[in-house]
Amino acid sequence: MKKFLFSIAIFFCLQICNAFSQKKILERFLSDKNDSTQRSRFLILPAFGYTQETGFNYGLVSLASFYTDKDTSTRNSSVAGLISFTTKKQSMVTLKPDIWSKQNRYHYIGDLRYKNFPFNFYGIGDRTTQADEEKITQKLVRIGLEAEKLMRRGSYTGLNISYENHQFSDKEPGGIYQTSPGIRDRDGGEVLFLGLSQIIDTRNSNVYSTRGTFLKFNYSYAPDIFGGENYTGSLVKLDFRTFKSYNPKTVLGFNLNYQTLGGGSAPFYLLPQLGNDAMMRGYYTGRYRNNDLLATQIELRYRPIPRVGFVGFAGAGTVYNTRLDFERFKPSYGAGLRYFFDTVRGLSLRMDYGFGEKRNGEERQKGFYLALGEAF
Fold first, then answer.
1. Per-residue model confidence as pLDDT tens digits over 90-144
2. How far apart, in whole angstroms, are the C-alpha atoms of residue 340 and residue 309?
3. 357 in helix, strand or coil?
4. Residues 164/141, Cβ–Cβ less than 8 Å
5. Which of 41, 149, 319, 355 could form a disulfide with 290 if both were Cys (CB 3.0 to 4.6 A apart)?
6. Would you call 335 helix, strand, or coil by DSSP?
7. What are the residue boundaries of the Bacterial surface antigen (D15) domain, all occurrences included (predicted)?
8. Measuring CA to CA, which residue among 270, 266, 296, 272 is closest to residue 285?
9. Residue 286 burial by Cβ neighbours in a 10 Å radius (0-12, 13-18, 19+)
10. Do 139 and 164 meet the contact criterion of CB atoms below 8 Å apart?
11. DSSP code of 186?
């Protein structure tokens, strides 16, 4: 929390300094004047914090936004990055390019990650408990690449490839991580996915959508090329989004996400996980994980002035294995604030506070999120 709040403070200090150098503060923050549509933008946020497991941590979050062509129909491209280090020799590095070619004929997506960082592990299933929490150290290398080609207006077909290498160590042996029989491949492993995507996209913007629909279906298969206990099987993902404007200031968005991992006994680290800054806000990522995931949410966005917006969101979701029980869906709800540092492209700093379920004997699950861009 302190890390996020410090980042917010630094961001607004930079904006104030920029306002003094260009125009009056109120004109900068509350102006309804549009920003340049073709000028490249670059934002960088410092982040600091402290936890017992990591010690002091420090780093930078950045976003570069640009257009690959002067054609006004070409969508906004971006490269997002994160670099973070701790005084206990832990680190995270992430780079996510999202590039649209001229007239949106091709769409290229990348996901490059290196992680040497602890995380909380609770077990497998939708009824894990806070009392079983364990600190597990993870080393992860991930390289994901995807290319999509426009086949006809609003329709894309894509190919994807991703490689992951996981390594784990239990800092305090004897807990559920070692004793639970349902946890497979505790030491880690590697996997290569090859996949095909079909996309329908009629949104008016890929950054801040106010109307239109997005549907992406992806099927990926992991062949047996590494041998041993490494995973072989399929991964299916479905992402559906639709948006409707009720007036120039109010937008309602709906989002549904489905994932299923099939083919033999899957390692715990590949199982779909409930909760993150985009879907099922309020839940710690990995608190609940299983072979199947189904989650949905609605978000009401109100933007009274071009620079500032407010949102309220609510949703429900669960993880399960083969059999879906609607009575075990978990709630997610909350509200958030947006500051648009580029009013034309809809680039924003997002601050959300989400709430989840309250299990017997535990505090209600909740979380604060600071991110760049909309949740969906």
1. 899 999 999 999 999 999 999 999 999 889 999 999 999 999 999 999 999 999 9
2. 8
3. coil
4. yes
5. 319
6. strand
7. 96-376
8. 272
9. buried
10. no
11. T
Enter the pTM of the model.
0.87
| Confidence label for 41 from pLDDT (cuts 50, 70 and 90) | confident
Pairing of strands 273-274, 288-289: antiparallel
Cα gap 333→161, rounded to integer Å? 34
**Phi and psi (nearest 5°) for 74?**
-70, 130
Please, are residues 373 and 207 in contact by the beta-carbon 8 Å criterion?
yes
Q: What gap in Å lies between CA 180 and CA 134, rounded to an integer? A: 13
How far apart (Å, rounded) are the C-alpha atoms in residues 114 and 139?
Answer: 8
Structure-block tokens of residue 94: 């992430």
Q: How far apart are CA 115 and CA 261, in angstroms?
A: 23
How do the domains of the chain map onto residue ranges?
A: 2-372
Q: Of 244, 240, 239, 238, which Cα lies nearest the Cα of 212?
A: 244
Determine the Cα–Cα distance for residues 189 and 199; give it in Å rounded to an integer: 31
Phi, psi angle pair for 4, to nearest 5°: -65, -45
**pLDDT, tens only, 213-248:** 999 999 999 998 988 778 999 999 999 999 999 999
Token match 């909350």: residue? 334
pLDDT averaged over every residue in the chain:
88
For 324, the token pair is 């879906």
Q: Which residue has tokens 């409930």?
A: 274
H/E element holding 17?
A: helix 2-22
Q: From 2.40.128.270, 3.40.50.300, 1.20.1730.10, 2.40.160.50, which CATH number describes the 2-372 domain?
A: 2.40.160.50
- Residue 220 in contact with residue 234, Cβ under 8 Å? yes
